[in-house]
User: What shape does this take?
Amino acid sequence: MKHEIVIAGFGGQGVLSMGMTLAYAGMLENKEVSWMPSYGPEMRGGTANCTVIISDQPVSSPILNSFDIAVVLNQPSFDKFQPMVKPHGYLLYEQDQIFNADCRQDIHAIGISATKEAHALNNKRAMNMIMLGALLGTNAIVDIPSVINALKKVLPERHHHLLPLNKQALKKGQGIIHQVAEV
Assistant: This one.
């Protein structure tokens, strides 16, 4: 099975680290992966996105024109990537950051209040892990234990004390997706 994913938002929202963690988790599960970041020169506050491909077969090219899943965290990313979601694909969006969520009818568009949920966990930076958990709730691309092990590799050691919070955020995102969507 091959999953072609785009994750997009503002720099500083954890877009690139979310994609890198997902790709690394795929590697830990012995899957073929590709992770390709893209960001403007301003980084924090500018737009950022990355494509992630996770497959049981070799990945022939990291360049994608359409996606099975798009995770978008701001309006410009919603506007840019919504047309690129394949029919019957998933568009997961941070609903508190998207003001115009008009969407195609041939895709599964699911709004998630990840920022509010992150505040409820007393850590606004957990928003990206809530969205990643929601992504994993739509498709069992990788397992949460693999994501936690990937975080151990991706995060600097000084942030390893946040691993339990990240696990809680991932499970929260999975739970939300199962409440609001038929997956």
